[in-house]
Amino acid sequence: MKKRLQTQFSARQYMLSRDFEIYYYSDTAPIKVATHAHDYYEFYFFLEGNVSIQIENEQFPLTYGDVILIPPHVRHRAVIHNLDIPYRRFVFWISQEYCNHLLEISPDYVYMMQYVQTSKKYLFHNDRIAFNIIQSKVIRLIEEMKSDRFGRQAQIPVCVDDLVLHLNRVVYEQNHLMGFEEERSLYQNLCIYIEEHLDEELSLESLAREFYVNKYHIAHIFKENIGMSIHQYIIKKRLAICRDAILGHASISEAYLMCGFKDYSSFFRAFKKEYGMSPKEYKEYFTQ
Prior knowledge:
The protein has helices spanning 96-105, 111-119, 128-146, 152-175, 177-196, 204-211, 215-226, 230-247, 252-258, 264-275, 279-287; strands at residues 20-27, 41-48, 50-55, 58-61, 67-70, 76-82, 87-94, 123-124. The chain is α+β, with helices and mostly antiparallel strands and 288 residues long. Helix 5 packs across helix 7 and helix 8 (230-247) packs antiparallel against helix 9 (252-258).
């Protein structure tokens, strides 16, 4: 870690800034901080050392990549077992007022804060890859705060908001990992089913009956995965099959009927919207 990013440790446990502060500490000499609490949120990112964190009456040994969130008024302290190796960590303080400001933008910014306060789970483990992404965002913020570059005052809140949102996303995805896997599997199975049944009815209701799930859930996961409605997806798939059939040996009427379009007028409008010309014009243009 670059020395210029490091801060001399201070036992101060109150904020000088109104909104947020961030520090990189690396200590090789004994430090003493008694059990204490803040009126702000403390994010703690553990890098190295033989250290545990005591939160209320429970003690947690720390490993590289651990992220701890201490809410306001929760008593805690670091327990340093020895300093044979340096004690290194990032500490990020953010006020309740600034969190309320982020909440007004989106509740996604404070998912982690609300989760920690209700679950009393303060410690989150991360693998090396996940923590490297977090660490890069932390370092970027520290570098920006220590720089005198143009736009610094505008860029710092952008970095803070990006870091906070990323941490919320990490925790949310850790808590919903099984749900993501299930949704991904459902999405893939739906895509396969649609491909194999383009000539049949493919309404949301029929798909919901086939897969035993709520039709609104199907609509949601399609929008999440590909950014379009399931109806748009089915139309695009049907049009692609029709286009290939038209360029082959099928007549236009054979093509639209084999792909599940119920009438020529709806097929004609969809085809012209997708490809910019009528089916007949398309066939003549590309088969010349």
